[in-house]
Amino acid sequence: MSGTRIELRTAPHAHAPVDVPLIMRHVIYALLPIVAWSVWLFGLGTLLLILTVTATALATERLLGGEGGERSIRDGSAVITGLLLALTLPPAFPLWMGVVAAVAAIGLGKMLFGGLGMNPLNPALVGRAFVQAAFPASITTWIPPLGAERFTSVAPSTLAPPFLRPEGLAEWIADQRVDAFTGATPLGLFKFDGVITPLRDLLAGTTAGSAGETPALLIVACGLYLAFRRFLDWRIPLAVMAGVVLAAGPLHLLDAERFPDPWFMLLSGGLMLGAWFMATDMVGSPVTPWGVLIYGLLIGLLTVVIRLFGGLSEGVMYAILLANAATPLIERLTQPRVFGAARRKE
Amino acid sequence: MSGRRLHEFPGGLKLEGHKSLSNAHPIRRAPLSELLVIPLQQHIGEPAEPLVKVGQKVLKGEPIAKPQGYISVPIHASSSGTVIAIDDHPVPHPSGLSAPCILIKTDGDDKWCEPPRFILDDWREMEPSALRNRIREAGIVGLGGAGFPTFIKLNPGTAPAVDWLILNGAECEPYITCDDLVMRERAEQIVGGLLVMRHALHAARCLIGIEDNKPEAIARLGEVVAALGDDTIEVVPVPTRYPAGGEKQLIKVLTGREVPSNGLPLDVRVVCHNVATAAAVFQAVEDGRPLVSRVVTVTGHGIQDPCNLEVPIGTPVEDLLREAGHFTDSFERLIIGGPMMGFEITSLRVPVIKTTNCLLAVARDELPGAGPQLPCIRCGACAETCPARLQPQMLYWYSQARDFDRVQDFKLFDCIECGCCSYVCPSHIPLVHYYRYAKTEIWAREREREKADHARRRHEFRQERLEREKRERQERLRKKQAAAKAGSDKKAEIQAALARVKQKKAKQAADGEATDK
Prior knowledge:
With 346 residues, chain A is mainly alpha-helical. Helix content of chain A is 56%, strand content 0%. Chain A has two domains: 19-141 and 143-182, no CATH class; 184-208 and 234-334, no CATH class. In chain A, 52% of the residues are buried. In chain B, a hairpin with a 6-residue loop joins strand 15 (331-336) and strand 16. Classes of the chains: A mainly alpha (346), B alpha/beta (517). At the A-B interface, helix 1 of A face helix 12 and helix 13 of B.
């Protein structure tokens, strides 16, 4: 061919100054305070976990992306997946299992379907679901926040060699000089011991739990930032929370002994992180106005059902994955009335 | 002004107007070009058919091409001179292709032909059909951009009645100010044209919708309408929001009625015309002046002296640019129309036609181009901004998959190609381009199917004829054979009869012998 290059430019010739990397960058900015708080709460091991998982996510995207891999890691979406995945893992999760989770997240959750924009399910949650099934013990092993030695030592499980059972944490936790640590999350405490964690701890995040899921207040603030910058559909977290309240409220009124109040359900576990940062993943959520509402309510409802009636103490992950899977159906059922089309009941 | 309750159309965008670049000075007359290039197709419908020969002298306003078919209008010489060619020439079209044009070398006299006799009649006493004919004879088409023959849109047909006649002075697209200037300077003509149109349509009420970023135009038209003392005519400022000037969107904003999908404004008893078209109608009916010139905005940071020019139809673009002070050093590209719906041209020889409203000379970095295309992440920004309430991301999905049935399920043909979705897309996907591709592909398939249907019908007809001929042949054969068979039976009878006679004779002979003995 000759050297002439014909550039085809079609209308519109103007463009809004927004692009995908910009959106992704702002999501990363919004996650950074949560990451920082998580490291403050749980220490060096958690920092190592977050770095390892994010680096693995990037490397997987680069490797599996083939020729486009170099370009696709630059859009920032793999960083978000890595960060989000790390924030959903227990703070002392073995690093090698974190690597497995990240490879599963990007490989099975995203690249298998064709990369950015093609994944039906939230990739970070696919990765977490994978390790939940693969390592049921490690994924439910928690450490206390604000341990005394958290910046000078690393929990033995963090550096566990690959394919070996991590050693017990009892000794290391004893070194942390934390009062009355039971080794359970607020949801676990409630489900198995009937103990309600104080609201103040839930808001600040000073409870046991996954690396980045505990500080409810901070997560809401970061989510609101994205919502104000219009990089996040605020209707989704709102609908999720409404779904939780609508499902947990009546149950609590029915039997306050068996069912906790909606506040506890909203602020404990991964609900806030899931509602603001996972359910809002654009690719797997509906676009239609009614679809968004149904999707959010469904997540809230499923979360409550799994938490209160299922075998697991936490259900946000599966609730979001199920709602992701239902998205095409929800969208088909909620197509808006096209301008000029007859109203249905007229 | 009025306290009319306005409505909202879905979606839309707030865009930077850039109108003050070009609307500060009054309309100037563009100098007459030496060569006028007048395409035979300047409107939607059938192209016109030339009436002149090469070498023929023509006067300004003389018809040089006549309409072919119903959806077509005549074309007039926009100045006096000599026809030097009737040939293909580059025309303002996104394809950049050439099309048949009449080329006139002007003589500089700009001499009008005799005005037609009809201007002596008073239009108020004319039959609407005669009025429509007059407007058609003047070659008037929608000057807002689409170029649909105006006389057709002035025909209410079998519709029960027209409730609203709307004049569209919204001019929502950035940069363009020609309608703004026409409204400021020719408000009387616009209102005059409105009255003519109203007479043709028997419209009950009239509205003039203008975006509220044009206060001078609103004030000027308001004065003229007030002087008329007719409270069935209202000037209505509408909120500035792209694409408020889309026909369906403006009708929604002003009346709350939604033109049905696949329908016409007439289906909701509304007719909508552009303000400059109304002025042209007035000139045609009152002065007998055909459409030989129009106002064109020449603007952008790529041109030294942005302005609005009254331009004879057929004037080459390069002459206009010269009049506007030619390109600045930072000039990058030239667009006909606005930044949202216009198209880029590469030849400066293309002429201004009836639908050319703006020449936009874009400077470097003035309209930052979209970056490289990225995958769709279903963010939904497009759906939020779509004024037709479509799901652009689904249309894109099925267009690129070439699934043309599904793309029509998502109402592709309700897309007005306003460009809002592409404007906001963070993945820089040229969405409108995909929709145009899908539309063209579907039209092509429809034509193919029609052709195939035609061929199939012909084939079936031929099959049937062959069958019939075969049947007839067999019928004939059968008759012949039957006849032949019948023939052989007779022979046997004759043989039998002969045999009997012989027998008889033999018997008689024997008897005779016996008697003889």
